[in-house]
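User: Show me a protein chain along with its predicted structure.
Assistant: Here is one chain, sequence first, then structure tokens.
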Amino acid sequence: MIQVEMLKSKIHRVKVTGANLDYIGSITVDKDLLDASGILPGERVYIVDNNNGERFDTYTIAGEPGSGIVCLNGAAARRVQPGDIIIIMSYATMTIEEARTFQPSVIFPDTDTNKLIK
């Protein structure tokens, strides 16, 4: 059976609020954003920095709900600057038949506050 990797969830254009080099690693994201996008704590995510073109992967840690936090930790902190606009994406593997009808979850937070736009 052939399987393909498809976009599962996307947080489109959020502002980096911090970069913490002295941390184990990962990206801390406001839990409200994770929940709305369907990205789980601990899930592998791909990061695209719109300001400098960096592309890398890490895993998520849930931050305080409603805080707007988007903080790159550990080595990933060297890839961004606070204030950069990033896209956070996760992917899922599925059969071609599943992929034909699958709809990813994509959210568009306010880029000034990183809060959900309702």
